[in-house]
Design a protein that fits this description.
single chain, mainly alpha, 2 domains, 15 helices, 0% strand, transport, transmembrane helix, transmembrane, cell membrane, MetI-like
């Protein structure tokens, strides 16, 4: 297992180096001066230009420049935002928690509702129930996320007025940031309005979380259904039925744990798509996360923000994909058998 983990670590490092190389090449293709693209400084003075040349080795060869670029980015120097004139690293650290919070809530919604529906679709003898569930998942998978987000905003936000359609929290509440996760910060706050702020934060996250959860929800339902149907034909399931165990007990204790393995694998494969959908959702609902921040940087041609946003999103996807693969290998007996056989 140690050799396998080492190989996954090497894969992460190699993929990250390729990512940095792509960003380095793209940065030099921006239609601006290199100093401006690398640092975000509009009009650097002679001393700043000399410092930039020294930091990024602009008077050296491409390989030396790439190594210098890598050192600066790995040290946390992501430049200055050309829009706000604030360090990009600080802005990135401020918007990351909002994206993580929205993604975690959406993933939990997809799993909480998707797994039971998948089990129901696989075990129900009623054809109408099966076809209804599969029709819902097919419809959800086919609906464009921007159309769904705008429609939910129009129905529940504008026409009915039930839910807010933008932001994380009403501006009337002043909650001191602790973790960056607004749902947690409202609970930790000692303000007398903390409870009301927590309810308001829940109301704000409902629409964007539902919109983002639709795609993984449909995938979870379909994969769970297919996995349960396949597992129920296995010999050990037939043996459990022959011993007189209740069907629901067999499903919960034997079939479902094994069915979750392909669900985990498929969720890892769709991380890139999920991240792309998250950016669209953040823009639609004005959610102050990395996606909205990156799109704003693209519109304003804020080159340092573009680099930092792409770098952060890509590294997170790479890291989570490898972690899910490691977790899948750890909990899947067949993968462990293949792993030990290869060693």
């Amino acid at each position: 297992m140690a050799r396998y983990l080492l190989r996954r670590l090497n894969l992460f490092i190699a993929t990250s180096l390729v990512l940095f190389a792509v960003l380095f090449i793209a940065t030099h293709q921006f239609p601006v001066e290199k100093c401006f693209a690398l640092t975000g400084l509009h009009s650097p003075n002679d001393e700043q230009i000399a410092q930039i040349n020294q930091d990024y080795k602009l008077d050296k060869g491409k390989l030396t420049q790439f190594i210098a670029y890598l050192q600066q980015r790995l040290s946390g120097n992501l430049g200055i935002s050309t829009t706000s004139q604030l360090p990009v690293a600080d802005e990135l650290a401020a918007v990351l928690p909002a994206s993580f919070e929205l993604s975690i809530v959406s993933a939990l919604l997809a799993l909480i509702f998707g797994i039971p529906l998948g089990v129901l679709a696989s075990m129900s003898k009623n054809k109408i129930t099966q076809h209804t569930i599969m029709a819902i998942t097919l419809t959800g998978y086919s609906i464009p996320v921007f159309w769904l987000g705008l429609t939910l905003s129009l129905w529940f936000g504008v026409q009915l007025g039930w839910l807010p359609i933008s932001g994380q929290l009403n501006l009337l509440y002043e909650i001191e940031p602790v973790t960056g996760f607004i749902l947690i910060d409202t609970l930790l706050s000692d303000s007398k309005y903390a409870h009301s702020a927590f309810i308001d934060a829940i109301l704000h996250i409902i629409l964007p979380a539902i919109t983002l959860a639709v795609l993984p929800f449909t995938v979870v339902v379909r994969i769970t259904r297919s996995a349960i149907i396949g597992i129920m034909d296995k010999t050990y399931i037939k043996a459990a039925e022959a011993r007189g165990l209740h069907t629901m007990r067999i499903v919960l204790r034997h079939a479902l744990p094994n069915a979750l393995i392909p669900v985990l694998k498929n969720l890892g494969l769709m991380l890139g798509t999920f991240a792309g959908y998250a950016m669209v959702v953040e823009v639609i609902f004005s959610w102050p996360g990395v996606g909205a921040w990156l799109v704003s940087g693209i519109y304003q041609r804020d080159y340092t923000v573009i680099q930092a946003g792409v770098l952060a999103v890509a590294l997170i996807i790479i890291f989570l994909s490898i972690m899910i693969e490691v977790l899948h290998t750890a909990i899947n007996p067949l993968s462990r058998k293949e792993l030990y056989a290869s060693n």
